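User: Can you help me understand a structure? I only have the sequence.
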Amino acid sequence: MKLKRFLLRYYPPGIVIEYEKGGHLKTKSIDLLDLSSETNPDELVAEIMQSEPLITESRADQVKQLILRLKQKKGQQNHRRFCFTKELKAHILPLTNVAFNKSGSRFITGSYDRTCRVWDTASGTELHTLEGHRNVVYAIAFNNPYGDKIATGSFDKTCKLWCVETGKCFHTFQGHMAEIVCLAFNPQSTLVATGSMDATAKLWNVETGEEVATLDGHTAEVLSLCFDTLGNQLVTGSFDHTVAIWDVASGRRIHTLVGHSGEISNVQFNWDCSLIVTGSMDKTCKVSFSPQGNRVLTASSDKTARLWDVQSGVCLQVLEGHRDEIFSCVFNYEGDTIITGSKDNTCRIWS
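Assistant: Let's start by predicting it. Here is the structure, written out as tokens:
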């Protein structure tokens, strides 16, 4: 194994190692979730060197400088107001999605006008117009933390892979039988996952452009998907009211999570890959008993999110309270807080 370079990850704090093994470029993460202003950088470097053979004495000072930068960033105060700075006439038709690269220096916009555009954040200058799709560009993403590639998914049933610097199209991934509505890069930026209205998800090789696997098992549209932080598993949420956990290497379905009674709108892993939160458009049912002892089943207007154990596939908790569809749900990086956002004009914080 040969160490190539370090990549700094501010949120959550950590260092990504890029290395070469057997002629292939690979990455691994050193998570520093307990980093604080009190952390001794020399002691932390010693701990990292003891557990990570790629980091030798010659790299110790470089690692220390990265830790100091992480500490400085963590100590910055973020209690500030956001002020409007500029408006961009981005597209001739409505926008579908926006996304930043890791540093925030660039962002991308997708649109009903069949294009994705790349922008310089500071100046608001358009850098590239990514043209080639024959229908709405609905799903977009950078391959963070690298930020040198963009994936776009379209209602034309294809996904395209682009170069950020030149705007050149590397590959067009063809194989879905219906619109692509969600996509994601794996953390290593070697795979792109796409979810489609054809009830499947697919995995694509970033280097060759070839289809790696078709994840077949849902009976309705796949609306949301997410890799875990190691890139070993993928979770998909569907209009068939179920969530599936897949092994990325084999394409095998590990668990089907059953419990929601409506379409799944959003799925997310927590940072240590032990939990999944799912948002849905469902209603809960409650069982009560009449004075005569008869069981009565009543429907509640509450829409739910659910918390699942990844290893067992068991539902750990039902998060109730929203009065309309839950469109988004997310963990914080520590994994001890969940936020859900709903069509009822509220978000709920669960600790």
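Now, to help you interpret it: The chain has three domains: 2-75, 95-283, 284-350. The helical segments are 41-51, 60-75. Let me know which part you'd like to focus on.
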